[in-house]
Amino acid sequence: MYNIKDYKNILIQIRMVCLSPERDTQGSESFYQPKMAFMILFLLLCLSFILNTTNAQPRNSIIRPGSSLSPNSNSHWLSESGQFAFGFYRYGNGFSVGIWFEKIQQKTVVWTANRDDPPFSSDVTLLLSTKGRLIVQPKQGQEILIASASQLASSASMLDSGNFVLFNSSSAIIWQTFDFPTDTILPGQHLLPGHSLVSNASETNHTRGKFLLVMQTDGNLVQYPVDSIELEAAYWNTKTYGAGDNVTLNLDSNGTLYLLNATALLVQNITEKASVSGKPIYRATIDADGIFRLYSRSFNQFDNWSIQWSSSENKCDPKGFCGVNSYCTLMDRDPVCQCPPGFDFIDQGQKDLGCHKNYNVDACTGKSEQMFDFDELISVSWEVDAYSSLSSIPKDACREECFRDCNCEAALYQIESQLCKKLKLPLRFGKRELSGQVITLLKIGAALDRGGERKQKELRVDVLIIIISCLTLAFLVVVCCSVLVYRHRNVRKKGISNLDSNGLVEDVTLRSFTYEELKHATNNFTDNIGKGAFGTVFRGVISNGSRIVAIKRLDKVVAEGEREFNNEMKTIGNTHHKNLVQLLGYCHEGSNMLLVYEYMRNGSLADFLFGSRLKTDWEGRIAITLNIARGILYLHEECETQIIHCDIKPENILMDEKGCAKIADFGLAKLLMPNQTKTYTGIRGTRGHVAPEWWHQNSPITVKADVYSFGIMLLEIICCRRSLDMMFQTMKQYL
Ligand SMILES: *[C@@H]1O[C@H](CO)[C@@H](O)[C@H](O)[C@H]1NC(C)=O
Ligand SMILES: *[C@@H]1O[C@H](CO)[C@@H](O)[C@H](O)[C@H]1NC(C)=O
Ligand SMILES: *[C@@H]1O[C@H](CO)[C@@H](O)[C@H](O)[C@H]1NC(C)=O
Ligand SMILES: *[C@@H]1O[C@H](CO)[C@@H](O)[C@H](O)[C@H]1NC(C)=O
Ligand SMILES: *[C@@H]1O[C@H](CO)[C@@H](O)[C@H](O)[C@H]1NC(C)=O
Ligand SMILES: *[C@@H]1O[C@H](CO)[C@@H](O)[C@H](O)[C@H]1NC(C)=O
Ligand SMILES: *[C@@H]1O[C@H](CO)[C@@H](O)[C@H](O)[C@H]1NC(C)=O
Ligand SMILES: *[C@@H]1O[C@H](CO)[C@@H](O)[C@H](O)[C@H]1NC(C)=O
Ligand SMILES: *[C@@H]1O[C@H](CO)[C@@H](O)[C@H](O)[C@H]1NC(C)=O
Ligand SMILES: *[C@@H]1O[C@H](CO)[C@@H](O)[C@H](O)[C@H]1NC(C)=O
Ligand SMILES: *[C@@H]1O[C@H](CO)[C@@H](O)[C@H](O)[C@H]1NC(C)=O
Ligand SMILES: *[C@@H]1O[C@H](CO)[C@@H](O)[C@H](O)[C@H]1NC(C)=O
């Protein structure tokens, strides 16, 4: 088929031939040439018009009894304009019957018959039987009903609206797919009171999935997880409760989604008229991820659907995305299910099934209350069905309350309101929240069996031996390392100049980010992964989504000039050691100070030691200790500017995927406390890890402070308990 452009080309060519000088010399003949050319053109145009109209000729859209389709012949019944098709489409390793957009390349199914049935094999026939029933007839066996109309059909039609209808002999509609929507409504379609849309199980599997959008008979349009249609589980609604008992959801051809009541009066516009140029087509679908979206696209067959509106921006909003005892968190804007500490996935392969406790003790029958420990999960909210709640108590008291109550399996503590809610498992609808205002305290199995007195004595002797041997070992290692490192120093210095040519230069230089960049990288600071002494840590993505990083927002920095900040960044940026968490960049704009670090997937040493038990064996812990010792040695002895950490503790040791320990938060002490190299008061650091002389006096801080903290941490690593643990009786609180 030609289009206008082709005709223009033809015209130009013809004219060129006609008006060329040689022809011109032939006199009068040439005078008629252009006329002839136009006549040819006219004929061509007429021909194309005829062809065009025959092409758009109604492909007889009335389907008579006896008509049939089979999967293999790739035949289907088209609507008048050819926009929609009804028939077999490929699904799994077979075929399903449904309706799809025929003119567009991206296969978009809007309706499926018997969606929960397995696919058909290729030897079946779809038939409008002479008896007036729409069925699928297998080679042998029972026929399957596609449309359950109350009367017999005398014809059927695929309408241009995307509605497939059956008519009786007086041409009244007796059955239509618009009355039985699956997950999509089209312009002109209504969702009637009591009816619902159910999401696909996945993007490629159209069996009934996990989420529901229901037009309630109370006038409210609400989204629920399919298996808990109850008030607490609703995650989106139009707040039109009480708008009448006959409210319908409508979509019109201008892309407006709205609710109408029985007298056809507007109850609410859910979306305004979409401002898309051209004449776009629309559909509204509850997607497999539970979000209800309005899509538009142009008629261009290579175009893609674009989202006009969605019921929620946060993919963790749909409740029930993650199973029981697990919580949803955004990673790179995609939702991911995670288990709290002390819990494991029920099925590693299907993380959305939920988590279960990785120990099994019934607290109310067990004898010793000391079999339990607590772990904390910050800023994760759950559906709270508390059996008891206490107000205006501090966090430790909340923990104590739960600890003493054998029925309490977890507690939710709201920092601002000082509210403590005692909970039982399973926990539902976990979701990481923006604000760090809520802490989940989880009762978990203790790291060590602290059964009887005698056992504990034995343990102490053991511990003493282990400590002594370990200290000796560490000392030897430190000495050996210093000697080795000292020797190789010169060699290494020479090596550095080669780095540039090895393409490592990007890793060596610090990058300065703008605040906007980091805001974008962290999805507007939504995905926070922890809170440290300096401020909040967020997960972010840089380099166009190719690298996951941890972004630390410094909140408590004593305001210092830009120069100091930049100097400090330079010092930290100049450190390169495999046992230090690498600083990748920073941002300093006004009062916003942010640091961008490499992302450490496997959490902190504290999680390893005090989290769910039996994660680390003795060998592993020795390796970790040596790694930390190497890192500290480097900070103290090897890097250009000596760095005193001031806060060595398990929380500040992070683990990478390979189990290698790395020191975090180094070099920040100066930012917190100005003039710190000589003297300062009010030492930062953590109680229990700081040497007593620094607690009580204003002595100048030296590397020895870190050595003391390292020693305390060594004890913690050996014993797998905190040096100061309020969970024990007074005498045993200090390790
Ligand atoms: C779709 O998912 C269901 C279970 O959710 C499964 O039984 C079925 O085999 C899946 N179908 C395809 C084609 O993957
Ligand atoms: C066709 O259906 C309409 C509506 O259900 C009904 O009023 C009419 O009588 C039917 N016609 C025949 C011939 O059954
Ligand atoms: C639902 O599943 C079908 C597979 O039969 C697929 O073609 C369709 O795109 C899916 N719909 C959504 C919204 O994912
Ligand atoms: C429909 O809505 C209009 C305006 O909101 C209201 O006046 C009317 O009573 C409603 N009709 C029904 C049947 O509820
Ligand atoms: C869509 O918008 C056009 C122009 O604004 C208007 O004429 C038409 O009536 C609208 N159609 C519907 C169904 O609201
Ligand atoms: C609901 O309203 C529609 C028209 O908007 C009407 O056809 C239908 O009969 C009503 N149903 C009930 C139960 O009132
Ligand atoms: C609802 O949307 C329609 C179409 O976009 C518009 O004409 C109407 O003014 C809107 N009504 C309200 C109350 O916003
Ligand atoms: C539509 O999506 C496909 C793959 O998802 C992509 O290759 C294509 O470029 C897109 N087309 C447009 C017009 O964006
Ligand atoms: C980011 O958060 C700020 C305030 O918290 C808000 O004003 C802004 O609209 C948000 N931006 C986006 C893109 O979510
Ligand atoms: C990131 O993507 C944008 C456009 O998508 C491109 O202009 C830019 O160069 C990319 N940046 C990097 C570092 O790849
Ligand atoms: C890191 O964490 C992942 C998942 O949490 C775990 O599978 C892996 O074994 C851990 N790696 C090490 C070295 O502990
Ligand atoms: C830090 O030291 C400088 C000069 O040594 C002094 O001017 C400044 O006041 C000190 N800052 C604080 C907070 O002590």
From TrEMBL:
It catalyses: L-seryl-[protein] + ATP = O-phospho-L-seryl-[protein] + ADP + H(+); L-threonyl-[protein] + ATP = O-phospho-L-threonyl-[protein] + ADP + H(+). GO terms for cellular component: membrane. Residues 54-179, 182-307 form the Bulb-type lectin domain. The chain crosses the membrane at residues 463-486. Keywords: ATP-binding, Disulfide bond, EGF-like domain, Glycoprotein, Kinase, Membrane, Nucleotide-binding, Receptor, Serine/threonine-protein kinase, Signal, Transferase, Transmembrane, Transmembrane helix. Its EC number is 2.7.11.1. Its main location: membrane. It is a single-pass type I membrane protein. ATP binds at residue 552. It comes from the Eukaryota. Residues 523-735 form the Protein kinase domain. It is an enzyme of class 2 (transferase). It is found in: Membrane. GO terms for molecular function: ATP binding; protein kinase activity; protein serine kinase activity; protein serine/threonine kinase activity. PROSITE patterns: BULB_LECTIN, PROTEIN_KINASE_ATP, PROTEIN_KINASE_DOM, PROTEIN_KINASE_ST. One of its GO terms (biological process) is recognition of pollen. Belongs to the protein kinase superfamily. Ser/Thr protein kinase family. This is Receptor-like serine/threonine-protein kinase. It comes from Theobroma cacao.
